[in-house]
Design a protein that fits this description.
Layout: H1 3-21, H2 24-28, H3 40-45, E1 51-55, E2 58-59, E3 63-64, H4 71-81, E4 85-89, H5 99-108, E5 113-116, H6 122-130, E6 135-139, H7 145-157, E7 161-166, H8 169-175, E8 182-186, H9 198-204, E9 212-216, H10 222-229, E10 235-238, H11 240-243, H12 248-263
Parallel strand pairs: 1-4, 1-10, 4-5, 5-6, 6-7, 7-8, 8-9, 9-10
Antiparallel strand pairs: 2-3
The structure holds ligand LARABZUK.
Organism: Salegentibacter flavus
Domain Indole-3-glycerol phosphate synthase: 4-254
GO biological process, one term: L-tryptophan biosynthetic process
């Protein structure tokens, strides 16, 4: 069993349990459920830097990254830095995140928020909406085409945007459909943890222009972003590079300033 298989097996158990504890009606009646969502896709289209900054305490590939920070401070810092959106990992067992992290981020910053999760069930989309998300992630490596269709269409019915993540051409070919807003290429192979931005470059020309292209993972330099922009990428998801510092907001601010300076 690879790590993705383990995560998904645990996720099934977690969702079964949660459905018994928190009924759908409770999610639908929550204060945030009817809030007007923000568009990450639109911000990325209009942005020069295109940074989506992540809150990530730990990960299967890196173990502990930073467990000493307050998510509300991180969200405020990212907003002040001028990022386009914030990604919040909500998986507890493997990433040390929670839905409460999403709530605190929502309360602290007026940014499009991505619920970074292993989504396999519509219930998780209702949770995302109830905890202030604007965008959800669907990972092609763990979903069949029919599931991607069903989940993305349900997300759209909730006014949530959809970022579909692929890592190879096969995943891309099976997933492409109109109910997606953004197409993310994960530079990290989630089964082996190998990281290379070459995969973003290889897949770039196959992605139709109506989808906002996002390159995810393993990005730590302004040069990499400048290079990926030549391949049509408008969004860049960065986690560890900011989160490994004492002040992720400041790290993001300095990164964006350097990017803007080098683009003049
Ligand atoms: O990061 C991992 O180790 C990981 C392992 C298994 C499944 C998903 C994983 N990461 C999720 C992500 O996609 C990243 O957190 C995100 O793209 C940011 O990556 P980075 O900038 O390299 O922290």
């Amino acid at each position: 069993m690879n790590i993705l298989d383990k995560i998904i097996a645990d996720k099934h158990k977690e969702i079964d349990l949660k459905k018994r504890v928190v009924p759908v009606s409770q999610l639908e009646n929550s204060a945030l459920f009817d809030r007007e969502t923000l568009s990450l896709a639109q911000r990325l289209r209009n942005s020069e830097s295109g940074i989506i900054a992540e809150h990530k305490r730990r990960s299967p590939s890196k173990s502990v990254i930073n467990q000493n920070l307050n998510v509300a401070d991180v969200a405020r810092g990212y907003e002040a830095a001028g990022v386009c959106g914030m990604s919040v990992l909500t998986d507890g067992k493997y990433f040390g995140g929670s839905l409460e992290d999403l709530l605190y981020a929502r309360a602290s910053a007026n940014l499009p928020l991505l619920r970074k999760e292993f989504i396999i069930d519509e219930y998780q989309l209702l949770e995302a909406k109830a905890h202030g998300a604007d965008v959800i992630l669907l990972i092609a490596a763990v979903l069949e085409r029919e599931q991607i269709k069903q989940l993305s269409e349900f997300a759209k019915s909730l006014n949530l945007e959809v970022l579909l993540e692929v890592h190879n051409e096969e995943e891309f070919q099976k997933s492409i459909m109109p109910s997606l807003d953004m197409l993310g290429v994960n530079n990290r192979n989630l089964k082996t943890f190998e990281v290379s931005t070459d995969i973003s470059k290889e897949l770039s020309e196959k992605i139709p222009s109506e989808f906002v292209k996002v390159s995810e993972s393993g990005i730590s330099s302004v040069e990499t972003i400048k290079d990926l922009k030549n391949y049509g990428y408008k969004g860049f998801l960065i986690g560890e590079n900011f989160m490994k510092t004492d002040n992720p907001g400041k790290a993001a601010e300095e990164f964006i300033k350097e990017l803007e300076k080098s683009s003049i």
